[in-house]
Design goal:
Blueprint lengths: L28 H23 L7 H9 L3 H16 L3 H22 L2 H12 L8 H16 L6 H31 L2 E3 L10 H13 L6 E3 L3 H10 L3 H12 L10 H17 L5 H6 L7 H34 L6 H16 L3 H4 L5 H16 L1 E6 L10 E7 L5 E8 L11 E6 L2 E3 L2 E3 L2 E5 L15 H18 L20 H7 L5 H4 L14 H9 L5 H18 L10 H8 L19 H4 L9 H19 L4 H12 L7 H9 L6 H6 L4
Parallel strand pairs: 5-9
Antiparallel strand pairs: 1-2, 3-4, 4-5, 6-9, 7-8
Helix pairs in contact: 1-2, 1-3, 1-4, 3-4, 4-7, 5-6, 7-11, 9-14, 13-14, 13-21, 16-17, 17-18, 18-24, 25-26
Length: 683
Amino acid sequence: MTNTNESQNPLLAESTLKNRAIPYPDIQPDHFMPALQASIEKARKQIEEIKATPEEPNFQNTIDALEYTTEDMELVASVFYNMMSAHTNEHLQRLAQEVGPMLSAFNSEVGHDKHLYARVQKVWDNKGNENLNPEQMQLLENTYMSFIRNGASLTENQKHRVKEIDEKMSQLSPRFSENVLKVTNAFEMYLSDEADLDGLPDSAIEAAAHAAEEKGQPGQWLFTLHAPSLMPFLQYSAQRELRKKMWIAHSSRCSSGELSNEAIILELIQLRHERAQLLGFKNHAEYTLDRRMAESPDKVNAFLNRLIQASKNAALKDLEEVRNFASATDGLDHIEPWDLAYYSQKLKQKKFEFSDEDLRPYFQLEKVIDGAFLHASKLYGLEFRPSNEYPLYHEDVKAFEVFSKASGDYIGLLYTDFFPRESKRGGAWMTHTYGQGMFKGQEMRPHVSIVCNFTKPTKEKPSLLTFMEVRTLFHEFGHSLHCLMSQCHYRSLAGTHVYWDFVELPSQVMENWIYEKEGLDLFAEHYKTGEKIPTALTQKVKDSAHFQAGIMSLRQLNFATLDMKWHTTDPSSVISVDSFEKEATKDTRVFPKRDGINSSSAFAHIFSGGYSAGYYSYKWAEVLDADAFEYFKEKGLFNPDVASAFKENILEKGGSEHPMKLYKQFRGREPDPNALLRRDGLI
């Protein structure tokens, strides 16, 4: 049995490692629950001390003091959920059914504490009498609104129901994610006939052989639903029936069977709807958007509809072009969803005289990472130094210390974790264990992780990325810069703690540099010869940037529309996930809806990832990033004045002020909505 003594629990003991690093190898699953219980009790004690303060409530003795009560609890939870996503096991998955409700119960307890709420409300009512700076004012507003939005002003019965709902939802979301991971891991397609590999590039064949060998099946080829295996297969396999098998397996994940997510979805939307109505909102979307730049479902829908009109027309033209090409090439009367990536890739190759595989040799993972670091160096004066001084949670993980080149000051710690494994969920994300800001009475610099699922190296080749994987790396790196460069006092306002429809700006704007010759020349070299990526090839990348922009845009709008429909519809009217999705996405599809195939059942962003009623944020932030990058292009890709303005007004400020104010300080005006349509060639 693990000793629960605080000094012997690595999650509770003060870290003696460099920069307070997390001692990952020392942490066992049995450490989490005692650490969480102890940290919650410590927070309760500190909250009681705040409530017992005899002086009249003011910002310092109430709002500022409350900010630091949950330091230990937040650290334990951050480490737990980082491991749940990046290196999970059955023990952690079982624990999630206890950890989530425990955290939820504590948050409800604090949010419903009428005496604490009374103190916070007094400070809010008297805010004009205190000389607060903008960051302090933002913290006060966030604190007050968190009480309101968690039901502090409700009756006791209503508070009890909100608490029940929160605890139940904290169990359902991890179960949703676990089901998706289990179904994804369960699918394995072994091929033993070389003829079945027709059309596949050498990189995909080598990776599949390596995967089969790792599973004890040498001489065969293993294909899975993990993106580095799935995507090349759908793009290049000449075996139509096998493409169909892969596409259907991926597109029907968790839509039926014992790991179906249907019941979870229906319960989640009902609980979210009920909770929103208890708090005085019409639906979950209204509740969510009350604290977003977009402000209301009507504004979001108007925004989406404007983009849908332009994107749908372009998408239908894109599809017709692919249909005509497939007919002329292979005599197909019609194409199916599992044909789209395959014929699109062939059409792209014909139109622009290159394929994604032509780019791969120039995108060795290590060089791409160095390229991202060099961009941060040229733009923001950062230096990244690899270090072996930090304990890691898996052998694939690497650590980098980040410094300011100008001052030599330590900026933060960056972990990278790039390859798929069965203990890691799919997709790509940035997370942190320590956020930037005051922690234990002194400023803490952030510890940030970029976690992805990229093509693994084989015996013959290093990890060579697709262009989309390069784009993903730069995207997540942009998120990491938002955290690393933060210069806030309060951790709850630092880094990515911003309005959800603003958080994607720093990540998405970073993607733009990889479409420019000047950006690619910093890192795109042939892994064998060291030759720079040819100018002609970079021009083809740029020329093809708008290829099927209509289909790509409509795909994102389909997800965003589906999300908004789920969270503005009365759940009592929903009969089944499949039928609901069919109706909800009728205007954003280019293929007919197939029975048993839906996005919702594996839509982790909105059912387990925090994007509920917020998926539109990707397109919203695309407007911001397109407008922001126009400024860089106008003045110069690495213009120090523009970079400095972005750094000082966006990256360093976190959520310390309203995002529109910060954006206007950077750009000198509000964003131009047409910037995105111009960039995508849709107007």
